[in-house]
Amino acid sequence: MSAACARSLVPGVVLRKHCPEKIRTALADLEGAIRKISPRVEVTGGPEIFCDASGLLRRYESEDALASALWSAAGAVGLATWVAVASCRATASLAARAGRGVMVLSPEEEPAFLAPLPISLLGGPADVQAALHRFGISRLGDLSALSAQEVGLRLGPEGLRLWRTSRGENCDPLLPVPEVERFREDEELEYPLEHSGPLLDWLDRLFSRLLSRLAERGLAPRRLHLVLGLYPRGQEPRCLEAAAPSVSARLWRELAALSLEQAPPCAPITALRIEAEIESPRPCQGELFRPAGPAPSRLDEALARLTVLCGAERVGSPRPRDGWLPGEYDLFPFGSGGGGSLPSASGGALRAMRPPLEIRVLLERERPARLCGEWPRGRVRRLAGPWRLSGGWWEEAFTRDYYDVELGEGRVYRIFQERMRWFLSGACG
Length: 429
Prior knowledge:
Layout: H1 3-9, H2 20-35, E1 41-43, E2 49-51, H3 63-76, E3 83-85, H4 89-97, E4 102-104, H5 110-114, H6 126-134, H7 140-144, H8 148-166, E5 184-193, H9 196-216, E6 220-230, E7 235-241, H10 249-262, E8 269-279, H11 296-310, E9 317-320, E10 329-332, E11 351-364, E12 367-372, E13 378-391, E14 398-407, E15 412-418, E16 421-428
Parallel strand pairs: 3-4
Antiparallel strand pairs: 1-2, 5-8, 6-7, 6-8, 9-10, 11-12, 11-16, 12-13, 13-14, 14-15, 15-16
């Protein structure tokens, strides 16, 4: 019926938009919860999920305990389900569809349980259901009382399949499927969002669901691909990247907030999709005779937070550039290989200035005689140099004259001149 008719009949009715993505996400959560209990799971694509209980009684003391564990696992991910344990998948399906909470049926109890159930629970083709209705068959017990020859003659092979199901004799095998390691969360919003605050709240929920699933498997994402559905149509993809794999929802929220602040969406947001690129966290070798130290994930989270605060271009492992210009280096992500410490400056300059500090220098006979300014300041007592360094003519040419100068205070400084300007490169002592 229309929404207006529904409101006229029930004034307080709550209308919600049918969202296939939410249903898909709920079934994925349910599948993940069941796989914690049984590795053999069949996903039908509909609202039912089957699992093989063979061998699970070594872990659970009874079938009732197994059914309760399945029900609790579904409740842990926020889903209300009906659970049934039976001798075959068809009977378990009928028992679950009956909607009586948690059901455990022994083979002796199955015929008495199935007999009063309505024939509509069997499903099947519409013409077979219509024929059963014409024959006055409304209960499973009525169908199971007929002979196989009569049912096959009037209803064909599909009718025989329903007849065997009504008697609890349909032993179609379980068809388990391997788990697909794809971690994704979707959300269809009820109304377009124009401000970053509500949008980040929605992203918080998706991050929490996705990261909890990853943490249960001992995995962590380094990149999250975020797709924003725009109003009235279109999408805007983004990539959130941390310095190290992390399952901290707070960290990913900060990265999302930074991305939205730097490049706001061009239209209101109506849908969200997040997909993770997963990595295995770094292993940690335990000590036999020392107490356990901080987990490696703590360092990963600290690096990721530094990336958010300082920017990806300022966090990483230094690597000297292949060139003649001293003090030049590049930063690479930790763990990318090839990183290392920078070579120490020669000539006793233990404290390097990065970037070099511009200073004022007084000359006598074209050589430094005095350093002026707030720091360093003083007359040059001894001087060594110059050492000319040049290069980069194929890109951006440079020519520098380096000096080591000792002031009256006894400290030694390394300075250089480039394009008529003087810079402090390092200090010793």
